[in-house]
Amino acid sequence: MRESLVARLRCPRCRTEGGFRLDAAERDEREVRAGSLRCGSCGHEATVERGVVELMPDPPEVVAREAEGLERFADLMRADGWDRERILSLPDEDQPYWRGQARQLELLLERGRFVPGQTLLDVGSNTCWASNAFAELGLDVIALDISTAEMQGLHTADWWMDAKDVYFERVLSSMSDPALASGSLDWAFCCEVLHHSSPRDLRRTLRELHRVLKPGGALLVLNEPLRFPTNLKRDHGAEVAGFAGNENVYFLHQYTRAARRAGFEIELLEPAIPFFTGDPLWLVRESSVLGSTKVYAQQLLRRTRAGRRAFLWWSVLLGPDGNLSMICRKPG
């Protein structure tokens, strides 16, 4: 961590903002690598290890279990052939999941008005691929996660910073109680993160992200899984149940209602699917007469604003499958 981060922190015990005093025990040319922070109001002490500020004392049991599960998942990734270089290729991994992430991020970067020097919180940073992407744009990034495990947590940041010549801060803290000062950030970014909350914590997380943003700031939500009347996804998360991932899945209205109650104004984003992107391969796949007629009708529909909006609402309300991306703006 760097000394400039201290003013943006909030004590997880007494909620005092900007009240920590840093005692650096080890530095390098980049940052403070080891040391401690002491709250001037309540005396709470937090450690700094490998540049990570540990501000998650006594985490709830569900958070502790999920953090342990991430360490086990990192071991599984290594056994499956993942290594440092493969992580550093993200999000440009040749898998459907990562191709979707990369394309949606590309569309978001085309829309966002990111200015070098602005502050951004990468919520649930995990492999830190998004922290790196925003840091390369010149943003002042803080990666926030509940795990420090290499490959599935904040210690992965060292790989990016060493290889890409970027820098971003790392804070060990939960998204439902982020140890950050109010009104200290221009942006917050969540990519498939919010659904790792219970309904109660989802509402609390959105309120907290609203709190840490400056007036006029925005929360960027990418690729949250959705539940539909035609696809309730009752087995959602079954594949990773052994890793205690706290997987949930929600209807669109549950996300949007929680965001509006937190104080956000919402704009839904078009998903990176062929209907909206005009992927020519989409036409090739539909070779039957019925399929070609369907594609032609959809091509006509996508050329109008009303048609695109109608299809967007259809896809996020009725599915039968798809994800939610949205921009949540804090008024002001």
SSE blueprint:
Blueprint: E1 20-27, E2 32-39, E3 45-49, E4 52-54, H1 61-79, H2 84-87, H3 96-111, E5 119-123, H4 129-136, E6 140-145, H5 157-164, E7 169-172, E8 185-191, H6 199-212, E9 213-225, H7 252-262, E10 265-268, H8 274-277, H9 281-285, H10 289-302, H11 305-317, E11 323-329
Parallel strand pairs: 4-7, 5-6, 5-8, 6-7, 8-9
Antiparallel strand pairs: 1-2, 2-3, 3-4, 9-11, 10-11
Helix pairs in contact: 4-5, 6-7
Provide the descriptors you would attach to this structure in a database record.
single chain, about 325 residues, alpha/beta, 11-stranded mixed beta sheet, 11 helices, 11 strands
Task: Characterise this structure.
The chain is an alpha/beta fold. It has helices spanning 61-79, 84-87, 96-111, 129-136, 157-164, 199-212, 252-262, 274-277, 281-285, 289-302, 305-317; strands at residues 20-27, 32-39, 45-49, 52-54, 119-123, 140-145, 169-172, 185-191, 213-225, 265-268, 323-329. An 11-stranded mixed β-sheet has the order 1-2-3-4-7-6-5-8-9-11-10, sandwiched between helices.
